[in-house]
Amino acid sequence: MVRETPVLTASGLTRIHGRGCLDCVRLTGDAQGRNICPSCGSVVALADVSFELWPGEILGVMGESGSGKSSVVKMLHLDDQMTAGSAIFRESDGRSHELAQVDEVEIRRLRDTRFGMVHQNPHLGLNFGVSAGGNIAERLLCGGERRFAVIRETALGLLDRTEVPRGRIDHQPGQFSGGMQQRLQIARALAPRPELLFLDEVTTGLDLSVQARILDLILEIQRELGVAMIVVTHDLGVVRLLASRTIVLRHGRVVEAGLTDQILEDPQHAYTQQLVMSAL
Amino acid sequence: MTPTSDVPQTNPGTQFGFLDDFAVREIRRGLLKALAIPGYQVPYASREMPIARGFGTGGMQITLAIATPEDRLKVIDQGADDSVNAVSLRRFIAASCPALLTVTRTPEATIIQTRHRVPERPLVAGQIMVYQVPYPDPLQIVEPSEAKRRASHAHGDYARLWVKLYEDVVRFREVAISNRYPARVAGRYVIDPSPIPRWDLPKLHRSPVPHLFGAGREKKLYAVPPFTNVVPLAFDDVPFEVERFRDVAGKRNRCQRCGADDTFLDEIPLTGQASRWQCNDQDRCSENLGYSDGA
Amino acid sequence: MSIVLSVTGLSKSFTLHHQGKSIPSVHDATFTVEAGQLTALVGPSGAGKSTVLKCVYRTYLPQAGSMVLHGDPTVDLATCDEHAALRVRRRDLAYVTQFLHCLPRQGTVDVVAAPLAALGIARDEARAAARQRLRELDLPERLWDVPPATFSGGERQRVNLARGLVLQPRLLMLDEPTASLDQRSAELVVAAIRAAKTSGVAVLAIFHDPVLVEALADQVVTLKRPTELPCAA
Known about the structure:
The structure holds three protein chains of three kinds. By secondary structure, chain A is α/β, with parallel strands linked by helices. Chain A is built from eleven helices and ten strands. Chain A is 38% helix and 23% strand. In chain A, helix 5 crosses helix 6 (148-161). The longest helix of chain A is centred in the last third of the chain and has 18 residues, at 208-225. The relative contact order of chain A is 0.17. Chain C is α/β, with parallel strands linked by helices. Chain C has helices at 49-56, 82-91, 108-118, 123-136, 153-166, 183-198, 210-216; strands at 3-16, 21-34, 38-42, 64-69, 75-76, 93-96, 171-175, 202-206, 219-222, 229-230. In chain C, helix 6 (183-198) links the parallel strand 7 and strand 8. Chain C is globular, with a radius of gyration of 18 Å. The model of chain C is unreliable at 229-233 (pLDDT under 50). The A-C interface holds A 2, 54, 212-213, 216, 219, 223, 244-245, 258-259, 261-262, 265-266, 268-270, 273-274, 277 and C 14-18, 54, 58-61, 82-83, 85-86, 103-105, 117-118, 120, 233.
């Protein structure tokens, strides 16, 4: 059953920090080479970012620091509110939500049951005061599961899936290695069977071999569950491996968008060419 | 600003019930709101009382605000009418409320103020339970920020509390909470029922009387109206259980004084022999004996 | 014979912004590929042969021209949107280069079965089809569950080709499929290509060996090296 409508349609996503003025967008961006509006001092983290995410697809969001890539995820994961623009999320049951206008109750429901998020820093994505199993249980409990046996079995299954040894289910995340913490984050993110998964620099800072295994795992999960994903990274290797389509951000604007292999092998924009040439 | 309500004419401290009119009105309004929204913590301006915080000022303010000269008050602490704190509270309230009678027999009371127990004898319509509460918020153990707790209550998001229950079941195969067991009221808010033991929690469920909770130090009021569902938080497959009071052979312990085997018991440890047990609810124990020892 | 791919006036140049140069790669290429037939691209190195394949695969964006994949639906790969391109890559188009790109931990059968799995075909069915292809290319069974990373060049290339053929694509593109292969492996690859042609697959190929062109090509298209034109960024 192939869905023919996008899971997410983002149009004109804009996020301005500060009071903003009529010239903010015009005076910042790629051509101007800056994020800060010289007229009012506001920071234009994102302006006019548009893209689509289709079911079962992985979209790469690539950029360097200050590009706005993390802001994109914050807007869509409803951790922050966009200043302007629209983002329509369509669930598999046909319901559609304008993320720019959802109320608090809906925000919680979407974040708890429809979205999954994996952070670069495991402290943002895990509760270190609770066991590994407890972290996964928390998401199942948010979704309304009240049977202990089911919670326990599901948690064990997710740990198996993310290759965390079952025997560690009752250990604290603080006792895990970095790679295992990330895998626990992934397990936790997958617990409610989300329709949309956000991965924010999830392998940055990890050893290469660990990184490879986690990327591998993400691909396998994607193949198995068909979850749509947005992968934010500055690493060309990660984007090449995971994403079929990619957008490149600079100074809060989309400077290039296309098939990942096309962007990496035939970059059109000067900045993308520079990025690709700089890769080791 | 001209208040539209009457300005109190009497000086505070010489009123019936010690509290001035404004205080009484505020507490009563708070209680009405608490009853209208079962389990919701209503903030109020907890007044300075002549006893220190932590000794029952919350419960006392409720009693003083609702008492009339026709009421009959029972005050218990740990099930006993004659413990130091119960006596002090009872004396103060009696002194502040001329003509108010104080009693020890549960069926004779119209207001029962308590810390730590609910009387064993089933309550009847016309009675009011008033609880002294140290910590009104069941989420306090999992979330230190008051603002976040309020948001959690508003969203009915008790996941972090459930996680604590999960961790207990993993570690102990049952929930390891002995008193202050969190319970959901009217299917909506989860309350801390004050430090009553699990034994007493079922008494709140569809009870014929209102249960009023006052936290003086934390400045909150909440309530369970009559005939309201109060359901302890428990997994569907790990049911809530009360204390069993069974010895190692599985036999139910009995009160050494009255012989009851259906009350909450205090353990009296002895050297060189097995512990003895006695009813925690002093009045019930005496009632079982027909009040024959002058109680 | 039905035309599967018609390329008309295809031109591709690379604009290097930082160097202020525009490097032409292919100029005005026109040819067709028909079902069951092999069109060979020949020409000196630098003439843009690989570029043409990459343009058809949409790894490169052409500056001018059309690349129409006929069928249901008919798609101009030069102008279609990304999803159409991805759909074509999944179902109709297989591109086999000299390099085998695959996940490091996937066993050979799963590598070959992957394109079928991506289409939603049941795992067992996909793996069975994959095994069939590997058998046809004479890859020993003992290697089937091993990841291809440690294989010899010839073994890897056969896995690569098996993966390209397992889909039974409408158009198969081959970029030097026998380069650096030993005699026997090369023969197996040639046999597989012949079999593909017989089953109706349209093939667009680059061969370094003129003997293979002679043996397999039904049509030969010669590309010329375009002259370099410097221009302002």
